[in-house]
Amino acid sequence: MKEQVETKAINLKGLAPLLQVFDMPTSLHFYRDVLGFKVVQSSGEGDDVDWVLLELNGIDLMLNTAYEKPNRPSHPDLKRNESHRDTVLYFGCPDTDAAYWFLTEKGLKLQKPAITGYGWKALNITDPDGYGLCFHWPANAGKGDVIE
User: Fold this and answer.
1) What is the pLDDT of residues 44-103, one digit of tens each?
2) For residues 137 and 147, is the Cβ–Cβ distance under 8 A?
3) Between 3.40.630.30, 3.10.180.10, 1.10.10.10, 2.40.400.10, what CATH number should domain 15-67 receive?
4) SS (H, E, C) 66-135
5) What is the reported pTM?
6) Cβ pair 64, 22 in contact under 8 A
């Protein structure tokens, strides 16, 4: 007879997705200079590095080059970027309208936020490598409401 062991949740303290990118300077410009992430750690000096850890308001994100510099082709592989459409990062964003205006002022061409079929107001964008980013919040919640 097997002994029953009470299961508990693993004590997790965050999540840091890793995205493979083609050109780190281009990706850093997007995530740091446009979205506002800060570089916390890096595999080297400057923007042309192979790995970075970014942070914004307690959200961690890692970027890693898909190719080491000596092996990097002159252009991204379009099939590879096409497959990135399967990856979307969802960010809690209480004021999607403000996010829309902030990003359009940074030069991005975007569609205005819309109410989804699941009742959230969402602003969808694509990063330079084809990954989806969705800034969303329940449509019936106030801008300052905390969702638990």
Assistant:
1) 999 999 999 999 999 999 999 998 877 888 887 777 777 788 899 999 999 999 999 999
2) yes
3) 3.10.180.10
4) CCCHHHCCCCCCHHHHHHHHHCEEEEECCCHHHHHHHHHHCCCCCCCCEECCCCEEEEEEECCCCCEEEE
5) 0.85
6) no
